[in-house]
Design a protein that fits this description.
The protein is 42% helix and 15% strand. The mean pLDDT is 94. The longest helix is centred in the N-terminal third of the chain and has 25 residues, at 96-120. Helix 5 crosses helix 10 and helix 11 crosses helix 12 (234-242). The strands form 3 sheets. Strands 2-4-3-6-7-5 form a 6-stranded antiparallel beta sheet. Strands 10-11-12-13 form a 4-stranded antiparallel beta sheet. The chain has a 3-stranded mixed beta sheet with strand order 1-8-9. The chain is an alpha+beta fold.
């Protein structure tokens, strides 16, 4: 009698914290500057978080081999990239191609979140599709300032607070020069379908694309990491992930890590150069905590209630080692601990280039 074959189970490879650190830096183009275009860079790193408009310019300068400020401004003006409220309800710059896919992927979970919040504030009985139609009609005649749109909402009998959730029922983007280095306040809005053209995307396709972009920029990662970054519940993402062909690893704490096939894993022994990061760079946010790019002992120095904008930081050997600021034509460094003189020299050389970007 023949017995059924039993294949030996293969134990997932364990990736150390340092190996995960180097993988994240490689995906974020922080191990070696790249010669790709602004659009390709923005796609590879899964978008740039830009509550503070100059952050996107600094993020690109630190990742690209020959970046000048007007390259991003031109990319926004020519609609190759676009700025809008997306993941976790924060402002991001993403590629034209990614915008609709990201917006559709996060749409229903963000609406559900807002309605729960609105209920606690007595705003859940509002006709949000009606508010969306009102704003759409207003924007079809051309871009409008934030204050103008809020006034239109209030004049139509809706509470002012409704504006905070209205963008979850109508896709609006920021129109340049709003939200650029030259005019930093991102307060000029336009309809996404007018600015980028109509789009028809299925939710399943959008969620898979969103997941692939995250793993491209931040993998290997847990399902919880993906959920935290996207602002989409694990229960919504799990069937999407289960249908994808992925590699699986383990962390040192026995968490399952997901990754795309053939995505780069440079190894723990790969040297990491000094790099400067802007405020709110997503490399440092909670979903990337497993890599210790931002050591736990320094987290309170970067993100704290007295400075909700966070602080610009610099990396030494792949980890945050201090903060920086631009003042009177120079980059001033504040190390969080004493640094060797050769590291200081590397930082000063890099800082000279960053000062030129600001000039």
């Amino acid at each position: 009698m023949s017995l059924p074959l039993r294949w030996p189970s293969v134990k997932p490879v364990v990736l150390t914290t340092v190996a995960l650190n180097r993988a994240l830096l490689a995906r974020q183009l922080l191990l070696e500057r790249s010669s790709v275009s602004v659009t390709t860079c923005v796609e590879r790193v899964a978008g740039l978080q830009t509550q503070y408009a100059p952050s996107a310019y600094i993020a690109l300068w630190t990742r690209l081999s020959s970046f000048e400020r007007d390259q991003l401004t031109r990319a926004l003006e020519t609609r190759r990239v676009v700025q809008g409220t997306l993941m976790r309800g924060t402002i991001h710059i993403v590629s034209r191609r990614d915008y609709s896919l990201f917006a559709v992927g996060i749409r229903q979970p963000r609406r559900d979140w807002w309605l729960r919040l609105a209920r606690s504030r007595g705003l859940d009985s509002i006709d949000y599709p009606g508010v969306a139609a009102l704003l759409s009609n207003e924007l079809r005649t051309g871009p409008r300032r934030r204050d103008e749109l809020i006034a239109r909402v209030v004049d139509s009998g809706f509470p002012k607070e409704v504006w905070e959730g209205a963008g979850l029922w109508v896709d609006m983007v920021r129109i340049p020069p709003s939200g650029t280095w030259e005019r930093r306040r991102a307060d000029l809005y336009g309809l996404a379908e007018e600015w980028l053209g109509p789009s028809s995307v299925e939710t399943k396709t959008a969620l898979e694309h969103l997941s692939r972009r995250y793993l491209t920029g931040f993998g290997p990662a847990t399902l919880g990491d993906l959920s935290s970054w996207a602002g989409v519940p694990i229960t919504t993402l799990r069937p999407v992930i289960e249908a994808m062909t992925l590699r699986r690893f383990r962390s040192e704490t026995e968490e399952e890590l997901l990754d795309l096939p053939r995505a780069p894993l440079p190894g723990a022994d790969r040297p990491a150069p000094v790099r400067f990061l802007p405020t709110w760079d997503a490399t440092l946010l909670a979903h990337a905590r497993r890599t210790q790019v931002l050591p736990d002992e320094y987290r309170g120095l970067v993100f704290h209630t007295k400075n909700p904008q966070s602080v610009p930081t610099f990396l030494v050997h792949g980890r945050v080692a201090g903060s920086w600021r631009y003042e009177k034509g120079r980059i001033l460094l504040t190390p969080f601990a004493p640094l060797p003189r050769p590291v200081i020299r590397d930082l000063e050389a890099e800082a000279a280039g960053l000062a030129t970007l600001h000039a």
